[in-house]
Specification:
The structure is a single chain. The protein contains 3 helices and no strands. It has a domain at 41-98. It starts with a helix and ends with a helix. The protein has 98 residues and is mainly α. Helix 1 (5-36) packs across helix 3 and helix 2 (54-64) packs across helix 3. The relative contact order is 0.11.
Length: 98
């Protein structure tokens, strides 16, 4: 099955726009994640946190877990930060529904 050049170009333009949108959202997510990490850690995550491998990330979280979370696994603390980040991003994107 052949598609017209116009359809082909529209498809790839839409695909590229989606990739750019996802890239922007990922960067926003990472910045927000780092900022919100201070709610669960004694220090905010470093700006290069997402450049670390998984083990280094968990080690950092374990080392800086805020006292109420010091006995939680680093994966659980990561999940708490992730859930808060996801909720805040949804509020930013969609607003607070009444």
């Amino acid at each position: 099955m052949f598609v017209s050049e116009k359809t082909y170009n529209e498809f790839w333009k839409e695909h590229e726009e989606q990739e750019v949108s996802n890239s922007i959202k990922q960067k926003q997510y990472e910045k927000l994640f780092i900022r919100l990490s201070g709610h669960f850690l004694s220090e905010h995550l470093e700006d290069d946190f997402f450049e670390l491998d998984d083990d280094e990330q968990m080690e950092y979280i374990s080392e800086y877990a805020w006292e109420p979370f010091e006995y939680h696994s680093p994966e659980d603390v990561y999940d708490l930060i992730d859930n808060l980040t996801y909720d805040v991003m949804n509020i930013i994107e969609k607003g607070i529904e009444k």
